[in-house]
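Appendix C: a fully annotated inverse folding record. The material below is reproduced so that readers can follow the format used throughout the book. The structure is listed first as tokens, followed by the designed sequence.
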């Protein structure tokens, strides 16, 4: 059973999302919160698999709530999906940097909402290649901010190659094809790189790859 926490200051949206999710046999909404502070407390209490968090809320906004969840060692299993009215923008980029798995626009169709919750629960990033390209072209324009030397230095050559391909938006199957290995081996390289970079998921791998200068916009 996938356990979901809803965090949004709009009660109508929360009730609508709850109604859509609770009818699924494998999903259960375990709690609702009206602001980030309450959401953080409920995350600690219920330990959900997925937290759907509004990006703009009173008390503590979605970005800071995401950062606090990502920094809490007791909440490592919680996958944060940001809710927004506006689509991809700099706030979303900052949320990904803070540790979000991805984002959803609030007018999402029911089938896509349910699918997104299942994808996030598996630990996969809700970042299509087109979104990855937007992230790169719009927001990774400043000089690289290198990761601590030990982080990148610990990556093997194959792990660096896998991270580079993740940053270009390739799936595990396509990464495996490019590297001449099996999809399972590709996944192993990615998971090991994530552990060494202290990345919660693929979304953070993308951000790290570009902000560290390992990959540059326009490269292929």
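Designed amino acids, in order:
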């Amino acid at each position: 059973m996938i356990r979901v926490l809803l965090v949004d200051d709009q009660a109508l949206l929360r009730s609508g999302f709850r109604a859509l999710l609770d009818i699924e046999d494998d999903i259960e909404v375990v709690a609702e919160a009206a602001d980030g502070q309450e959401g953080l407390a409920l995350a600690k209490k219920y330990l959900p698999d997925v937290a759907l968090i509004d990006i703009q809320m009173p008390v503590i906004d979605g970005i800071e709530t995401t950062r606090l969840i990502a920094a809490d060692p007791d909440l490592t299993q919680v996958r944060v999906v940001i809710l927004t009215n506006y689509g991809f923008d700099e706030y979303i980029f900052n949320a990904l940097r803070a540790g979000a798995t991805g984002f959803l626009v609030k007018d999402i169709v029911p089938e896509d909402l349910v699918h997104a919750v299942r994808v996030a629960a598996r630990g996969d990033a809700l970042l299509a290649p087109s979104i990855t390209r937007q992230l790169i072209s719009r927001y990774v324009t400043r000089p690289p901010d290198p990761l601590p030397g030990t982080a990148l230095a610990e990556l093997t050559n194959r792990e660096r190659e896998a991270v580079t391909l993740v940053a270009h938006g390739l799936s595990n199957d396509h990464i495996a094809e490019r590297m001449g290995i099996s999809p399972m081996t590709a996944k192993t390289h990615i998971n090991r790189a994530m552990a060494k970079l202290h990345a919660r998921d693929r979304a953070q791998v993308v951000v790290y790859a570009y902000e560290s200068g390992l990959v540059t916009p326009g490269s292929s």
